[in-house]
Amino acid sequence: MTLSDGSDAERLALVLSQTEARVTRELDRALAQEGCTVEQWRALALLADGGSHSMREIAGFALVSASSLTRLVDRLVADNLAYRLPDPGDRRRILVHITDRGRDVHRRACKRIARDGDAIVSAADLPGLALLTELVAGSAKTQS
Q1: What distances in angstroms separate CA 72 from CA 78, 94, 95, 115, one per listed residue?
Q2: How far is CA 39 from the centre of its chain?
Q3: Cβ partners under 8 Å of residue 123, min gap 6
């Protein structure tokens, strides 16, 4: 099966979208036990590399809109998970850094995901998950 015709591409898009929504819901449940949202976890995952990151980078990585980004970073700062500093090269630009507490929360969240991963995936299982696997595998074969 290839993605060259519209119906396969549409089916793939629908199954991906439905699967992503379910996995995100299950991740949200698991991460809530660590006091963390999916968006916070994504932002912390980027910040955990030890570098400083712009608001734009965080928005892209955490998959949040610009309007939601400020609230997300405000929450990270309020919870002492991250802090902001002006960019030394451009004081108009703000860079965000992870705190030690943010590293701890990120580490605990990753352990929770590793521990609950099978449950997250099985709870998010859709009848179309096999189709998703088939469509992705078929797409990879046509790409090689």
Answers
A1: 10, 14, 14, 26
A2: 6
A3: 22, 26
| Contact in structure between 112 and 33 (CB atoms under 8 Å) | yes
Instruction: Confirm if 85 and 17 have CB atoms less than 8 A apart.
Output: no
d(CA 111, CA 7): 39
What amino acid occupies position 37?
Answer: T
Contact 34, 27 (CB under 8 A): no
CATH tag for 6-143 (out of 2.60.120.200, 1.10.10.10, 1.10.8.420, 3.40.250.10): 1.10.10.10
pLDDT digits (tens, 9 = 90+) for 85-142: 999 999 889 999 999 999 999 999 999 999 998 888 887 766 666 666 676 777 666 6
Q: Global pTM?
A: 0.81
Q: How far apart are CA 62 and CA 72, in angstroms?
A: 9
- For the chain, give every domain's residue range: 6-143
When pLDDT is cut at 50, 70 and 90, the band that residue 1 belongs to is very low
Amino acid at 75: R
